[in-house]
Design goal:
The protein is α/β, with parallel strands linked by helices. It has a domain of 243 residues: Alpha-Beta Barrel (TIM Barrel), CATH 3.20.20. Helices cover 33% and strands 17% of the residues. Strands 3-4-6-11-12-15-16-17 form an eight-stranded parallel β-barrel, surrounded by six helices. A two-stranded antiparallel sheet has the order 1-2. Strands 7-10 form a two-stranded parallel sheet. A hairpin with a 4-residue loop joins strand 8 and strand 9. The radius of gyration is 19 Å and the shape is globular. The model has no long low-confidence stretch (mean pLDDT 96).
């Protein structure tokens, strides 16, 4: 065993407690839900297999908070009792294999179409549709409805209800998906958010909705069970960053801290960490002394360095864990990782 990779070993990290490693399975959309958007035994086997191989924390695939928030083919929801009970079986099997598991709560916003929202226009910060063709149904993205006062309250209630359902299913916590161009990020992003009210314009205004959601969730869920995911910098055919990224990070993280949030995921998805989330994470550490995760595509040496230097507390992997359920063992004995290829997305193994 290669002992230099201490991130592969058991540890205790506040507020998560005892973990079998500092390895996090990142949330990845897979599209293998069962009838009525339920979680399945196949999904339980998929997650528990990674748990059995030493992953410390599993973040589920994006899980839709309400039918009107959907935007993808065959993704799970956590709105109804049936959906909640289906997730309980997944959580139980992950726990049997030693990992902790958080449910990622997801609202797609304008990255959607009426085909997925029960015929309703998708909600967004704007009434302008996303550019391009939606690969989910090969149609242009739906024309969104610019959110009004009653919409904010409804969505906040949907996040709270989904969070309660996740805890009822036995999840160790929830992750609020505030990144990657989905609903909340559509408020953060000045290139999308064209509002002139209290939810648009200034940094404080563009952060307001996410902070309202967070405050509402923290009223019913202890801070030791709540994580937020943001993506200030990612690759979209070139580096794509928040307008005034540094000022945004400073303001938002200080407000997160004031709200009581204690866990943060700064995500770049399938991108060069050292050109996207890596610099954002180094800046974030100036304002964020609490649990911080990130990584995406780091080598074992790079992951250890990020932890040793205090940039990260835990490291996320996504595609590498699809291709290598036994990734931790391979790191420890020096075996090369299998390369990810898109054919692997055709099954849930």
């Amino acid at each position: 065993m290669n002992s230099k990779f201490s991130f592969c070993e058991p540890c205790s990290i506040s507020p998560l407690g005892e973990l079998q490693s500092r390895v996090v399975m990142a949330a990845m959309t897979r599209g293998f839900c069962g009838p009525n958007h339920t979680a399945t035994e196949q999904m339980a086997n998929y997650y528990s297999r990674r748990a059995s191989e030493g992953v410390g924390l599993i973040l589920t695939e994006g899980t839709i908070i309400h039918s009107s928030a959907d935007g993808y083919n065959n993704v799970p929801h956590i709105q109804t009792q049936e959906q909640t009970e289906s997730w309980a079986k997944v959580v139980s099997k992950v726990h049997e294999n030693g990992a902790k598991v958080f449910c990622q709560l997801w609202h797609c916003g304008r990255i959607s179409h009426e085909d997925y929202t029960g015929g309703l226009p998708p909600l967004s910060s704007t009434d302008k549709p996303a550019a391009g063709i939606n690969r989910q149904n090969n149609k242009p993205y739906g024309v969104p409805r610019k959110m009004q006062d009653k919409d904010f309250q409804k969505v906040e209630e949907q996040f709270v209800s989904a969070a309660r359902n996740a805890l009822n299913a036995g999840f160790d916590g929830i992750q609020l998906h505030f990144g990657h161009g989905y609903l909340i990020d559509q408020f953060y992003d000045l290139r999308v958010n064209d509002r002139e009210d209290e939810h648009g314009g200034s940094i404080a205004n563009r952060c307001r909705f996410s902070l309202q959601i967070l405050d509402n969730v923290l009223e019913v869920v202890d801070s030791s069970k709540v994580m937020a995911r943001i993506s200030p910098s990612r690759d979209m055919g070139g580096i794509y960053e928040w307008h005034k990224r540094n000022e945004m990070i400073e303001y938002l993280l200080q407000e997160f801290d004031n709200s009581g949030l204690r866990m943060l995921d700064i995500s770049c998805a399938n991108a060069d960490y050292f050109k996207t989330s890596g610099p954002a994470i180094r800046l974030a550490r100036s304002y964020w002394p609490h649990l911080l995760i990130g990584g995406a595509s780091l080598s074992a040496d790079q992951a250890q360095s990020e932890i040793d230097n205090g940039h990260l507390d835990m490291v996320t992997w996504g595609r590498a864990l699809i291709a290598n359920p036994n990734m931790i063992a391979k790191f420890q004995d020096g075996t090369p990782l299998a390369e990810f290829n898109r054919n692997m997305l055709q099954s849930l193994d």
